[in-house]
Specification:
CATH architecture: 3-Layer(aba) Sandwich
Number of helices: 7
Distance between the termini: 26 Å
Structural class: alpha/beta
Largest sheet: 8 strands, mixed
CATH superfamily: Vaccinia Virus protein VP39
Strand content: 15-25%
Number of domains: 1
Length: about 240
Amino acid sequence: MEPGSTTIDPREAAHFGRLAADWWDPKGSSAMLHKLNPVRLGYIRARIDQHWSGDECDRRPLTGRRAADVGCGAGLLAEPLARLGAEVTGIDAAPENIEAARIHAEGQGLEIDYRAGGVELLTGPYDLITSLEVIEHVTDARAFVHGLADALADDGLLILSTPNRTSTSRLLMILLGEGLGRIPKGTHDWQKFLTPEELCALLEDAGLQVVDVAGLTFDPMRGFTLSDNKSLDYFVSAKRRSTFS
């Protein structure tokens, strides 16, 4: 990214900043994120174990590693990463979220380096970078991905998730989710959603190699689950491209 530039959309930052007060309330405006978190953590843990050939029974597989969560909100993912042993940096565009994150982490006895701002605040290299449901809210997806890639360690792992730009996501996330109040109105702009092909192309353009793509679907009986179906939402994992390949 150019010095002094940012991918923050002020309107998006203000929208999410207004949700800061009840971010940790599982029945509040961020209830959907609380429902998403278990499957998110399951996916991240599986990718960590695969990437570093770890022991799935190890309760702190990130010990000795640096992790960054970009678009961290009030810390729903940053705190579990810290409990997995990582030295964590959490970055969010909304200062209100960062303040809520700091207060909550202090109450949990966790030391997390929270910073208000955008991807330009990353001070890598980081072994693990996560950015979940964030890229669809930035002003320049390509610059955002390059900022993430630039901060990734040579042996690092990058994990993103984002809604797919399909009729399914428009129906379930915007028309029904926001229309029925399950998701705060105005959270999503369907035109800014990226397809897996588009996001993978951005990652490859940034010098990364995509190692996994997995769908995230909603089952009325089981809630959110991993799936081969990527029509609603999906995860992408990437690592730095080998110069010997």
